[in-house]
Amino acid sequence: MSTYQLDARRLLCPMPVIRTQDRVKQLQPGDILEVTCTDPGVKNDIPAWCRINGHQIQKIEEQDNEITLSVLVGKET
To answer: What is the CATH number of the domain that holds 33?
Structure first.
């Protein structure tokens, strides 16, 4: 298991989800992708995408207008 970072700051919907999807395709099940965003919509959009595609949100942290979501990569359906 490895941890990777994705900077999706200053991107608006749907780009944070698309960038997350593209990066997850390069990772292995069990890896963690930490996605940092500034669009508050990601708090709903990325978890919904994860549920549909077999991934899990480990945590969501907010600090100074930035949201970091930790995505546990699962097997894509």
So the answer is: 3.30.110.40
